[in-house]
Amino acid sequence: MDNTKKLLDEARNHHIELTQEQAEQFVKYYEMLIEKNKVMNLTAITDYDEVIVKHFIDSLSIIKVYNVNQALKVIDIGTGAGFPGIPLKIAFPKLTVTLIDSLNKRVTFLNEVISELGLTDIHAIHGRAEDLGRDSSHREKYDLCVSRAVSNLSTLSEYCIPFVKINGMFISYKGINIKEELDTAKKAINILGGKVKTFDEFSLNENMGRALILIEKVEKTSMKYPRLAGKPAKEPLQ
């Protein structure tokens, strides 16, 4: 069984239809990820079958709760090795995607991937969410903000909600059993102009559960937020 067939079959199992060309882009992405991972820490998951499910399919699982197969302006905060932003762009080419990461070496890798895969309307930016969220060229300019970053939801909301337009959406990829963290974050989400719309828990396979939290932007974010770099993580909004 060739690599693209495994990927196409797994995607189909999750009701995601990919073309042969898209599958080949994913395989090339995997190869670049593994090669670069030899010299810098991008992922602890390197087995091809595991990367398919735990990075690629996981990134695309947002389609279960939100229609990303349309022309949306998307920003991925703390993208790391490019998840979920690059898989979303490959699978849903109508998206215009901005990837944000605070480590320049990762941004260089992401731009190499974008170039090698021939992707358009996607670019990677080096910077911190706290700074870029105050920049008028990014603040409240996106239909959708996504993040698989590991920060607690109060902190993550302060990073992400300022980027989202009114009536846009912030979707946080979290582990299962999220209810307590979500309850703790609700006040912060409200302060930032957001409202929890829903959250959905499901299994990607027998070993991996995922929760997607949908937060709608219902009013403008006060110019007090995001606070200065480091503050949202050290002192999450209560």
UniProtKB/TrEMBL annotation:
Positions with a binding annotation for S-adenosyl-L-methionine: G78, F83, A129, E130, R148
Family statement drawn from the similarity comment of this UniProt entry: Belongs to the methyltransferase superfamily. RNA methyltransferase RsmG family.
EC number: 2.1.1.-
InterPro entries xref list: rRNA_ssu_MeTfrase_G (IPR003682), SAM-dependent_MTases_sf (IPR029063)
UniProt-recorded name of the protein: Ribosomal RNA small subunit methyltransferase G
Role this protein plays: Specifically methylates the N7 position of a guanine in 16S rRNA.
Pfam families linked: GidB (PF02527)
Origin superkingdom: Bacteria
Xref: Gene3D superfamilies: Vaccinia Virus protein VP39
The keyword rRNA processing is assigned to this record: yes
Molecular function in Gene Ontology: rRNA (guanine-N7-)-methyltransferase activity
CDD domains: AdoMet_MTases (cd02440)
GO cellular component terms, A-Z: cytosol
Entry's localization field: Cytoplasm
Coiled-coil positions: none
NCBIfam families per record: rsmG_gidB (TIGR00138)
Alphabetical UniProt keywords: Cytoplasm, Methyltransferase, rRNA processing, S-adenosyl-L-methionine, Transferase
Main location: cytoplasm
